[in-house]
Amino acid sequence: MPDSETGRLSFKLVYYGPAQSGKTTNLLRLHDQLSPELKGEMMTLETQDDRTLFFDLLPLGFRAPSGLLIKFRLFTVPGQVAHDGTRKAVLSRADGVVFVADSDRAQETNNAESFQTLAGNCSRVGLDFERLPLVVQFNKRDLPSAVPEAEIRERWSAAPWPLVFASALRGEGVAASFEALLRSTYRRFNESCELASRHALDEDALVAGAFGKSAGR
After folding, report:
1. Fold of the domain spanning 4-210
2. Is 116:19 a contact under the CB 8 Å cutoff?
3. Half-sphere exposure (Cβ direction) of 204: Cα atoms closer than 13 Å
4. pLDDT tens digits, residue range 186-217?
């Protein structure tokens, strides 16, 4: 959990999902869409047959009105079943997750299994899945075999998480998914980190700061 007592606050945000669902493409496109001064270099951690991508957003941070310095670290996890150990390690201490599902109808079982693995791994690394800021992105909407949006919405209608439809390859829905996660993360940590009450930082200002804009713009 972030700690605002040190005068700085760092959020770890993870892109999780089945193999080839577009997690890496999401991170690459988001990195492309952000202004150079807002982001650190894209880095890769490679182990045998897998890789984890990450970059620091706001490497110099942005400041709340109180002076609190806020930063974000964004990670992907390898999707292959064999790399569950790496997934758990990257997921550990995460403050929020974008679950990237593949819209291809042939991938429905893989999506479901990966989502169940996410819930299980959260428990294993000490995260409260019920309270975890989570956004579900259905990627690859450009595929002719994509499950219709109405069908997905009906299937997920009882779920509490925001749904975003995306084509990360085209850069569509990438920023919207990230913004939805920022908003969920703010609501989860606002009270415990006293973001509004002590640091005069509201939800819109957090989102604006992460995208390098003033809250009024």
Report:
1. Rossmann fold (3.40.50)
2. no
3. 4
4. 999 999 999 999 999 999 999 999 998 755 43
Q: First CA to last CA across the chain, in angstroms?
A: 30
71-93 b/e (C-beta count within 10 Å ≥ 16 → b) = bbbbbbbbbeeebeebbbbbbee
3-state secondary structure of 52: strand
Query: How far apart, in whole angstroms, are the C-alpha atoms of residue 7 and residue 209?
Result: 17
Query: Which residue from 14, 204, 161 is spatially nearest to 90, judged by alpha carbons?
Result: 14
Token digits of residue 168: 């990360």
Query: In terms of Cα–Cα distance, which of 36, 86, 28 is closest to 54?
Result: 28
Comparing C-alpha atoms, which of 199, 200, 193 is closest to residue 95?
Answer: 193
Question: Are 161 and 145 within 8 A, CB to CB?
Answer: no
- On whether the pTM is more than 0.90, the answer is yes
Domain definitions of the chain by residue range? 4-210
Return d(Cα 52, Cα 172) in angstroms, integer: 23
How far is the C-alpha of 54 from the C-alpha of 27, rounded, in Å? Answer: 8
Distance CA 192, CA 186 (A): 10
